[in-house]
Design a protein that fits this description.
The structure is a homodimer. Chain A is α+β, with helices and mostly antiparallel strands. Chain A has 2 domains: 4-127, Sandwich (Jelly Rolls); 146-239, Winged helix-like DNA-binding domain superfamily/Winged helix DNA-binding domain (Arc Repressor Mutant, subunit A, Orthogonal Bundle). Helices cover 41% and strands 19% of the residues of chain A. In chain A, strand 4 and strand 5 (68-74) form a beta hairpin. The two termini of chain A are 25 Å apart. The first copy, chain A, binds a DNA duplex through residues 146-147, 178-180, 188-192, 194-195, 198, 210.
DNA sequence: CGCAAGTTTGATGATTATCAAACAGGGTGG
DNA sequence: CCACCCTGTTTGATAATCATCAAACTTGCG
């Protein structure tokens, strides 16, 4: 099975066989985490860079009130901040959502790889820019979209991201997120998201069942979401969601 | 007057006179923008890196519905993404809020400076990490804080950021943002923010008048916001807001 | 089989948006 | 210099969205 890290970065720029080999080398020895296990916690001193190879992971923060906000989902192929070591301590936690296989890349490995493979360096900086774009899109969603629009937008985002690492089927993909997790990501309650999902199902846009999403009508879903895939900066935009 | 860019980066790490001189050199020829003028628009091809020297600037996006969401405020000393040139087109716009003086740094200047001054490179990567932390904090605010908490949190953030570039007075600072602009940043309406401001004023926490904010009770404001300045990654945390 | 986690539905209430309108201030042109 | 206009602020009335509380139901698993 293809290394998801290589696959993801290939979706952003061209990598040659040599680059791919280097990427596979630094992620050769992943570690397993079980669901709910923290990779690193708020307040911890940052360590190596994480690269998710299998399973889903999230960045999150717990507020004094006890409520949780998820700020990002990392799926296979995704890495956390390259330069994270520069900070004295983490301002948020990173946790496995499902069982996950995660490689760690030390700062030294990172630096030598980026020095020897300028193409990889460029592509990883692009990936970082895309991740920032995703965060901005979340801010837009939280600020200006209704609950239904927000759900639809997130599903569009996750579908395209999953697609670029070969994890989607025909208008359908595996989404191992409970409604509570989705609620924590979208800033709403599990009760309300449940009602919104019902609404989207009845509207014939999408249907979420345990562990997987079916996109019933891509055009309708994109329209509800007000989704513009531009911010994901993939090459081959024509192969996107609505043009399926 | 001190160069705000130097001043801001000095708040994150130590820079020597040589570093400071290099930073001043690349920002020596700023350009003026009037309020509401775009530095760059969504869809444009990214150009040089921007460094704000005077005035306020924001990242924003206009939705199909016509509503606007501001995703970041840039104040003097703040720079936009180092590697932005790697993307084919902007996924959001950047606009002056007030009259602003903005320097542009070309990719070549950038690269040679970062090669010759590893300290600057490290510090700018730190600044980028802090900016990402600020975005995550915005996501948390939008997702899990009430309108009043969100306003209080933003004011705490902006106060500390202004403070680190020497723009604050005694429990008071200049904030050239209209209530409409604040609303667009916080994902609410101008009408509602006005009521929230009144509430915060009556509670004796803070008072916003045209162009400036007075922090009436730092402890109370921090408490309402649930503010933890850790994510700004300043050195000298003891000199923060609540310990005034 | 029984428990734990997750999903679904109902009833009610709080928060925030929307619509409407009055008011204040700053700048411009007659 | 004043009238006017534009932008921004403030207040009121009403409605939509979403949270909260409560409880039944469903599914997977030891």
């Amino acid at each position: 099975m293809a290394n998801r890290f290589v696959q993801k970065l290939s979706g952003l720029a061209d990598l040659d066989a040599d680059d791919a080999a280097a990427l596979e080398r630094v992620t050769a020895k992943p570690r397993r985490y079980v669901a709910r296990q923290d990779l690193i916690r708020e307040g911890d001193e940052p360590g190596p860079m994480f690269v998710v190879l299998e399973g889903w992971v999230c960045r999150y923060k717990i507020l004094p009130s006890g409520s949780r906000q998820i700020m990002a989902f990392l799926m296979p192929g995704d890495a956390c901040d390259l330069h994270i070591k520069l900070l004295a301590q983490m301002d948020h936690g990173i946790q496995a959502i499902t069982t996950a296989s995660v490689a760690t890349v030390s700062r030294e490995q990172m630096e030598s790889m980026m020095r020897d493979h300028p193409n990889i360096a460029r592509t990883m900086y692009m990936a970082q820019l895309v991740d920032e774009g995703i965060m901005r899109a979340w801010i837009v969603s939280m600020g200006r979209r209704s609950a239904a629009e927000r759900v639809a937008h997130l599903i569009c985002e996750l579908y395209l991201r999953a697609r670029s690492i070969g994890l989607t089927g025909e208008g359908e993909f595996a989404l191992p997120l409970s409604q509570l997790v989705l609620a924590d990501a979208l800033g709403m309650t599990a009760v309300h998201i449940n009602r919104v999902l019902k609404e989207l199902r009845l509207a014939g846009a999408m249907a979420l069942t345990r562990g997987s999403v079916t996109i019933l009508d891509p055009v309708k879903l994109v329209q509800i979401a007000g989704f513009d895939e531009n911010y994901l900066h993939r090459r081959l935009l024509l192969t996107g969601l609505s043009a399926r």
